[in-house]
Amino acid sequence: MKIIEISGGLGNQLFIYIYYLYMKKKYNREWIFTFFPRRHVRHNGFELTKWFDVQLYEPEWSKLVCFLFYWISRILRLIGLPVWFMRKNLTEKENVIFHEGYWQDKKYLNTLDVHSELKFKAFALSRMCQQFLQEIQTMNSVAIHIRRGDFLKCPNLYGEICTPVYYTKALSKIKEKVKNPIFFVFSDDLDFAKSLLKKESIVVVDCNRGENSFFDMYLMSQCKNMILANSTFSYWAAILNKNHPIVVCPDHWTNIDSPDIIMNEWITIKQ
Questions:
Q1: Which of 115, 123, 168, 224 sits 20 to 30 Å CA-CA off 92?
Q2: Residue 157 — pLDDT band, cuts 50, 70, 90?
Q3: Parent domain of 45
Q4: Distance of alpha carbon 185 from the chain centroid
């Protein structure tokens, strides 16, 4: 038996789902349960099954077992005792019962056909999203993701990675390879983004906030090329993009223990 805890925002939930599929494939004679103990607490809550056609194994009878391991693990850590049945990071033993982490590593992605395992559900687009989608499909569209918000609160972890210098270099790289690019701007700080890109041909996508934030990921995944932030949100838009895009990204994701997630074919920008 193995329990995979699902947590974080949608980008991290997708990483964990891929890890879950990897564990199911490797330990195919065991029960592999999923468990999301903090639904609707952070970000937009549990979104994985809302937007993607995925199957999780969460039978009713397993929930008590999951809660027991969840709380026992926390009590043991609180009193300073080792949690022998738990894996918290990639360096720890894999063949244990309880798995709590984000599992950000491209080795799990490379064991699966992601486009067949992760498919969008059928959903209705707003009139504004339909208009943006039509423009994305008919222009030399380049998604550019600029994330600030919560990243500004953690400068030691996320700071000085996707700086204005990074975006200047990324824009130049795209212009070398794409004729007459139109940059579709996705950001949680649109005033900053507009100021940064005031000399570029841009379309500002400004209709998706809160519970509708997912539609930014969807629209990014439909663009022909992409400039990413060091964010799992735009990362997964690139992974799900079926257009074989040129993808430009920073050469590291975080300043501390940066995960090995950058795909070999992506163009990296070094600060």
A1: 115
A2: confident
A3: 2-117
A4: 18
